[in-house]
């Protein structure tokens, strides 16, 4: 394990995570590069339509219960969702692609319903989705205050020096992308960044680099509806199929890959 983590650390040090110069696009782009995330809002009409599509497909695929309920592949189940992410959010995809080392495109849209009653959060405690870089767009489809399981991001934690410090702190761990809750507290005390609780009314969107530290806060009452776009660089067929299985995309929504 230690040898594996050591090799990983060396790879991370050697990997070029591009530090794009800022001020070449707009404030959103600058924030994505500098802080690791930015927020924007979509219209009421778009929000309502997305929420309706989410509810229709949760019923169709029988996603019920309490806790962190998920349905991946909403962009494949609904032409509106597909069009919305690819056309209406074009400018935000551009921001991500200017910021990213690799050109990324939409892999899948996750529909999320967080229902109180199971002491549950979305995504669990502090973690990175991966080291290096990865991007997501999260949209709140219901009002999200402190009690409704908001998303929390640690500003600047996507930076390479921050990733290296975290990997060293997690050196003896079996799971190097998950962190003890104390670590962000220590890093904040050292003035290396700030925890940001991202509350917002429905229609609030958060574009973020998910290689930065983030977590979901436990929902205390009611429910939280959301959609999250997963963006990936071009994948080999095998990786693509593995990811479809990993995310439990319903069979009829899996893509036919013709090689
Ligand atoms: Fe995550």
Helix content: 25-40%
Largest sheet report: 6 strands, antiparallel
Give the topology string: H per helix, E per strand: HHEHEHHHEEEHHEEEEH
Query: What is the CATH homology-level superfamily?
Result: q2cbj1_9rhob like domain
Instruction: Output the number of helix runs.
Output: 9
Distinct ligand kinds: fe (ii) ion
SSE layout and pairing:
Layout lengths: L1 H13 L12 H8 L2 E5 L2 H17 L6 E6 L1 H4 L1 H10 L1 H10 L4 E12 L19 E6 L10 E4 L5 H10 L12 H8 L5 E4 L5 E6 L4 E3 L6 E11 L3 H10 L13
Antiparallel strand pairs: 1-7, 2-3, 3-9, 4-7, 4-9, 5-6, 5-8
The structure holds fe (ii) ion.
Give a short overview.
With 259 residues, the protein is α+β, with helices and mostly antiparallel strands. The protein has nine helices and nine strands.
């Amino acid at each position: 394990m230690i040898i594996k983590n050591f090799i990983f650390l060396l790879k991370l040090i050697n990997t070029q995570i591009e530090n794009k110069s800022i001020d070449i696009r707009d404030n959103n782009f600058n924030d994505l590069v500098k802080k690791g995330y930015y927020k924007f809002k979509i219209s009421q009409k778009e929000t309502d339509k997305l929420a309706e599509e989410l509810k229709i497909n949760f019923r169709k695929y029988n996603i019920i219960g309490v806790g962190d309920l998920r349905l991946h592949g909403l962009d494949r189940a609904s032409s509106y969702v597909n069009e919305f992410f690819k056309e209406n959010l074009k400018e935000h995809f551009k921001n991500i692609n200017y910021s990213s080392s690799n050109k990324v495109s939409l892999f899948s849209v996750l529909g999320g319903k967080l229902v109180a009653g199971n002491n549950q959060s979305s995504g669990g405690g502090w973690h990175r989705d991966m080291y290096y870089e990865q991007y997501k767009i999260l949209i709140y489809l219901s009002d999200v205050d402190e009690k409704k399981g908001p998303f929390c991001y640690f500003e600047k934690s996507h930076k390479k020096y921050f990733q290296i410090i975290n990997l060293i702190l997690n050196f003896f761990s079996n799971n190097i992308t998950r962190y003890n809750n104390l670590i962000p507290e220590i890093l904040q005390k050292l003035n290396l960044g700030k925890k940001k609780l991202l509350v917002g009314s429905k229609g609030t969107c958060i574009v973020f680099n998910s290689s930065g530290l983030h977590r979901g806060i436990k929902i205390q009452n009611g429910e939280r509806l959301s959609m999250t776009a997963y963006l990936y660089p071009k994948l080999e067929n095998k990786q693509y199929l593995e990811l479809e299985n990993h995310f439990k995309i319903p069979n009829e929504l899996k893509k036919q890959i013709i090689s």
